[in-house]
Amino acid sequence: MMGRKRFVVLSLLAVICAPAFAEKETSYLAVLMDGKKIGHAVHTRSEAGGEVTTSEEVTMTISRLGIPVTINTTETCVETTAGKPLRFESVQQLGALAMKVAGTVNASGAVDVVSSSLGAEQKSTIPWPTGAVMAEGLRLVSLQKGLKPGVEYTVDVFYAGLMQVVKAKVTVGEKKPVDLLGRVVKLTEVMTTLNMPGAGQITSTTFVDDEMQALKSVVPIAGMSVEMIDCPKEFALGSNDVVEMIDKMFVKSPEPIQDVSSASSITYTLNPGKTADLIIPSTDNQTAQRLPDGRILLVIRPATVAAGGRFPYKGDDPKLLEATKPTRFLQSDDKRIVDLARKAVGDAKDAAQAARRIESFVARYIDNKSMSVGYASAAEVVESRQGDCSEFAVLTAALCRAVGIPAQVVVGVAYVSEFGGLQGFGGHAWTQAYVGADERGQDGKWIGLDAAFKSSGRGGYDPGHIALAVGNGDPGDFFNMAAALGQFKIEKLDVQRAG
Predict the structure, then answer these.
(1) Other CB atoms closer than 10 Å to residue 64's CB: what's the count?
(2) Predicted pLDDT at 3
(3) Cα–Cα distance for residue pair 333/345, rounded to 1 Å
(4) Confidence band (pLDDT; 50, 70, 90) for 6?
(5) DSSP string covering 385-417, please?
(6) How far apart are CA 252 and CA 485, in angstroms?
(7) Per-residue confidence at 9, pLDDT binned at 50, 70, 90?
(8) Candidate from 131-145, 321-335, 411-425, 434-448 with smallest mean pLDDT
(9) CA 162 to chain centre
(10) How far apart are alpha carbons 95 and 245 in whole angstroms?
(11) Which residues lie closer than 8 Å to 471 by C-beta, 6 or more apart?
(12) pTM value?
């Protein structure tokens, strides 16, 4: 488990998102987590030929069970001097693997997108989100609104790394003394609240000078404090501390769960604290109910489907059809993945049997359970045959889609009795597949598949899994999961067993 190495990068987006107001050409920033320096960021802005190019490059090193993982991301936006989007590029180097997505606004106003990894490209065209801005557009809005205390405004911001629009509410506060690595100066506080779909709100705090240059940004996420602080180049690029991430991704259990895989269902009482808008999704495997006192009653009872159900899916449900399509992380049309899927399924006669065979196949196929891998796509996993829970999850989903079984990647937390000396619910990823549909594609169910746990001998999906987000395995889904972590506590659980 613990497939959350991209968690750091994605959570930092909440910091990077802070308005970059000033026209300063290059800024160097130290990246700190809980007061320890884990890396650096370089922000550049240049203007030429009526175009403004803004780039944010972040490099960090974290540790997972003593294994260092270096993460590099670069986001570049090109806009007109009036803030009109022209093109963008996001490059994510997570461990040894890299993924790039680039988009260009065409003559009709849509965006031509090219995603690439391991030399393979995927092309698509998407509409530009109406009214959304990128870096320069956000800077111009911020300049126009100014820094008068009490000013509030809302803006839709498009992030290339997420391929997602996030609604940001900006509130200007008062001037106050701020510690910039030992240098205390008076800066204006600016609060930016991001509304993350499916995960509630994340609020970052940025401190800017009178020239509207952001000198410090802070975001609390998953119980941590992540900071970016303007500093001399030499310090930003200097040596880093070692921060262990595993314990940051755990939610405490109110009591140990004996033999969790044998439970028929578990009822959890979750306390979201002050996060009134926290959304826990309801699926065929779990039902979430908001109680009058604000707590959430969550019942997890794994769906079961007897042998049956046709594949490939022949129905017309838009959500299910979407879950059969290839994506930039689930390249189900890749010949290597198609060939593996056919091998895994063999002579399976129905979707339920085929999905279970794929789960078992992936459990055996990934033979190097490495914590050093960055977030890999399914095509990358086919080549490397290594990774942790997220690699098991994306490959399982892609193989299901390759034979026409609707499948999604689920991210959340799962119970472990011991992992790196910890006990509780740790960040995890698994898969759900739609099986049991009749000839019209109806009356099926989403069942849980966990090839990572099956590989470890646990048996697969069970009631010890709490889903926090469901999707295509895109970075946005992991951002939503990371945002939800730290926003709730498990106050009580009740284990039910058959018989």
Answers:
(1) 18
(2) 42
(3) 16
(4) very low
(5) -B-SHHHHHHHHHHHHHHTT--EEEEEEEEEEE
(6) 11
(7) very low
(8) 411-425
(9) 8
(10) 15
(11) 408, 409, 477
(12) 0.76
